[in-house]
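Z., the sequence and structure:
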Amino acid sequence: MIALSTHSGLFSYPKYWAECYDTSLFLPTTRAEMNALGWDSCDIIVVTGDAYVDHPSFGMAVIGRVLEAQGFRVGIISQPDWSNKKAFMELGKPNLFYGVTAGNMDSMINRYTAEKRMRHDDAYTPDNVGGKRPDRAVLVYSQRCKEAYKDVPVVIGGIEASLRRIAHFDYWSEKVRRSVIFDAKADLLVYGNAERPLVEIAHRIASGELVNTIHNVRGTAVIRKEPLEGWRGSDSTAIDKIGKIDPIPNPYGADDVGCDKSEFKQTGIDLTEEVAKPILIQPHKTRKERQKPWENTYVKLPAFEQVRVNKPLYAHASRILHQETNSGCARALFQRHGDRHIWVNPPAIPLETKEMDHVFDLPYQRVPHPSYGDKKIPAFDMIKTSINIMRGCFGGCSFCSITEHEGRVIQSRSEESIINEIEQIRDKVPGFTGVISDLGGPTANMYKLRCKSKKAESTCRRLSCVYPEICKHMDTDHSPTISLYKKARQVKGIKKILIASGVRYDLAIEDPRYIKELATHHVGGYLKIAPEHTEEGPLSRMMKPGMGTYDKFKELFDKYSKEAGKKQYLIPYFISAHPGTTDKDMINLAIWLKSQNFKLDQVQNFYPSPMANATTIYHTEMNSLRNIKNNQDEVPVPKGARQRRLHKAILRYHDPSGWPIIREALRKLGMANLIGKAPQHLVPPESRDEKRSSGKAGGKYQNNKHNASNRGDRPALSRHTGSSQFNKANTKPRVGGNKKRN
């Protein structure tokens, strides 16, 4: 039997022999830098699509420093010329393996807007220059590494590889693609936060193990012919039943779609390969001997060839994947692609506080590599005075991929480690003004919040701990966060601690002390918050709370701001064209915005990122948040350029360039009473000029190149948020921002 590798402390391994070289000021990026360190070769070379910034908010720096702390010599190849293999040979042949990542962002989201228009800038590149990384960077980089040294193992990871670990819907090609590891021709795929699996892989290869035998590391996926030896499994339909669906013709000429076996006759499940029956756990005499039902078990998903053409099966496979994200009870996943399979091991065990502290306390220089000179890297400028205090998110918002990547369990640093980083910023960051721009993470107010029941936390398969209501086991005591904020603002030389990460307001209202601390000391006039919508249809598909919780938070925020003698405003974010949203839903949202005197400058159209639950709904038009039964729960999905433009225009109801298409929609919906000049109207009637120009080349809305559809869709410049723009002449904020919730 091949069991999962034993969990070891992240820094408990004996150090590799090369530790004698000690740490480097910056990880080398050229042969000359290697020579200056006395290196004849690198043990591991990290290839990244981002500029090299030696800061704990940049993945390549974290991985590089963690591996360096294990004694390995780590080099960085940053934003290489991918036209040939030459750039990938710059540092010579690595002794152990290449580590490949597209960077902090998915390369496709980095390069294209939600409307699939190419961007001409890149915040992770010096001077914000676009085009410095290829489309699907993980594929291209991995293949070039193989061309450079075909016998050197390639390990792919980062957000791009992580969210493509099984067959997945690809928004840019509008089709289902196979697991990225096949196209990349990589040896191993690491998903999620990579420290623990990468350290284990590095030590095992260094000890002489062949990469094609390292198949049992948590947090990794590999290509196999068969399941791991000694593992038992069951078909996915034994876990999550699919209702009767119409059979489909098999485009591949095999018998695995619409097979004759009665139980799965119309599900398209492949039963040609033997799958063990679901495990029946036999009672043992002692608890110590009792096997947990998920140990050494796997779930067989419908094959790539099936989910590619069968939307109910795709939705079903997505449901199974999202149910198997808890590292405490997740089973392995097994999905056929042609004559091979992708084997996805259970997620890595989350880092403990001491391990998190160690990772963030490594000797980062906290600045870009000196080779960039005076060039500005916008992503670095955005986060250079912000601090990541935790990882993970138990919110489970369907449009967000944080849970799939980082997991639901909150991994928090200690107060001492965070305070130490504040002092480092004060002492090291050039031009520091005394203002910390953020203490946060995926969410501002989940620091040290965990399930109060260890047993429940280790066995729960809920998609969210706070939807449709907050779980009774969830700790909502914000005392640790309040304590941290108070200590942080007492650090000598610190004038202000701001909170820029999004606040989960349904949690905050459970502990009004946090709202008081926030409003009194940590808001610079505006606080961003993300209700995302006002209507039940889209909110239920987003897995977000209703507006009642927003109203309660606003009431408390306004109260404590007034008590502090401050005029402060909430900046709400909304998503247009999200699955589950009708045209009428968008109009109701616009009516609410107008009633609140909110005018949004930049808005976000829904962006179907790989593996997100909302992306599954977008692709299948089925509610995959619950069992798929005979297509009974069809979901309205705004698709096509015109409808997506309409929803965005409605969200920016005040912009004249969108009025023609809004009027047309209002008339079709029988809501023409909202056209007029009175306060209760949403848009004004056509002007004489508009009437004169209507019918000419599609009208003003389509001809205006500076319209709403060109303004939003900017990805976040950091792990937290994008920027916000306000019209300060208004008594209430004119809301902007290019937040990308991916």
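The radius of gyration is 26 Å. Confidence is low (pLDDT under 50) at residues 245-285, 697-742.

Let me know what you think.
H.
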